[in-house]
Amino acid sequence: MAGSKGKKTLVIVESGTKAKKIGGYLGSNYDVRACVGHVRDLPNGAKDIPEELKKESWSNLGVNVDADFEPLYVVPSEKKKVVADLKKALKDADELILATDEDREGESIGWHLLDLLQPKVPVSRIVFSEVTKKAINDAMQHRRQLDMNLVKAQETRRVLDRLFGYRLSPLLWKKIRAGLSAGRVQSVAVRILVQRELERMAFKSGTYWDLEATLKSRDGQAFLVQLATVGGKRIASGKDFDENTGKVKAGTDVLLLDETKARELVTRLSSVSWSVANIEEKTQSRRPPAPFTTSTLQQEAHRKLGLGGRDAMSVAQRLYEEGYITYMRTDSTSLSNEALLAARTRIEENYGNSYLSPQPRQYTSHAKNAQEAHEAIRPAGTEMKTADELGLQGREARLYDMIWKRTMACQMADARLRFTTVTLDADDTTFKGTGRTVEFAGYFRAYVEGTDDPEAALEEQQSPLPPLQVGDAPKCEHVDPIGHETKPPARYNQASLVRKLESEGVGRPSTYASIIQTIISRNYVNEVNKQLVPTFTAMAVTRLLEDFFPSLVNLQFTAEMEQWLDDISNGTGDRSAYLKKFYLGRDGLDTQVKDKESSIDPREACTLHIDGLGATVRVGKFGPYLEREAGDETQTASLPNDINPDEITNELAEEMFRRKQQGPQSLGEHPEEGLPIVVKVGPFGPYLQMGEQTEDNGKPKRVSIPKDMDPESVTLEMAVDLLSLPRRLGLHPEDGKVVNAGIGRFGPYVQHAKTYKSLTKEDSVLTIGLDRAVELLKQVNRKGATPIRELGEHPEDKEPVEVYEGRYGPYVKHGKINATIPKEHDPMTVTLEEAIAWLEERAAKGGGKPRRGRKATKKAPPKSTKSAARKTPKKSTKKKKDE
Question: For 563, phi and psi rounded to 5 degrees?
Answer without folding.
Answer: -65, -40
